[in-house]
Amino acid sequence: MDKKHRVCFPWVVVEVKHERVSPDEEKKCYLQAANAASTCLSMHEQLCKHSPVEPYEAHIPPVVALTFIGPEVKLWIAYTDRDGDETRSHVSDHFVAHRERL
């Protein structure tokens, strides 16, 4: 992939694999999406440090991650949750859908 084709959208992540992947490759796809979503959330947290609002009080928008393995699509929502006084953790959940072949 050329450098001109690389784009960063810190609110959406897409991971795509063909339908004939091993269970390990499938798990790797989900882990890659989770890691990228967490990185996006961290980017937003870093940006909030430059906000006029106190960084801990600033709103961190959720990140959408889509994983495609063959016809199966999973939509993941990753968000920041407050753990205590000034700590945050990243949480995600997913929904499953299936694409139909044309």
3D architecture notes:
There is one protein chain. This protein has 1 helix and 4 strands, in the order E-H-E-E-E. With 102 residues, the chain is an alpha+beta fold. It has one domain (9-98). Helix 1 (23-48) links the parallel strand 1 (12-17) and strand 2. The mean pLDDT is 80.
From the structure provided, what is the oligomeric state, counting identical versus distinct chains? single chain
Q: Major sheet, described briefly?
A: 4 strands, mixed
- Uncertain stretches: none
Structural class: alpha+beta
**Average predicted confidence as pLDDT:** 80
**Spatial gap, N to C terminus:** 28 Å
Portion of residues within helices: 25-40%
* Secondary structure tally, helices: 1
Largest beta sheet: strand ordering = 1-2-3-4
By DSSP, the count of extended strands is 4
Strand content of the residues, in percent? 25-35%
> Would you list the SSEs in sequence order as H and E?
EHEEE
Rounded to the nearest angstrom, the radius of gyration is 16 Å
Shape: elongated
Please indicate the count of domains: 1
List the helices and strands and how they pair.
Elements: E1 12-17, H1 23-48, E2 63-69, E3 72-82, E4 88-98
Parallel strand pairs: 1-2
Antiparallel strand pairs: 2-3, 3-4
What would a concise description of this structure say?
The protein is an alpha+beta fold. The protein has one helix at 23-48, and strands spanning 12-17, 63-69, 72-82, 88-98.
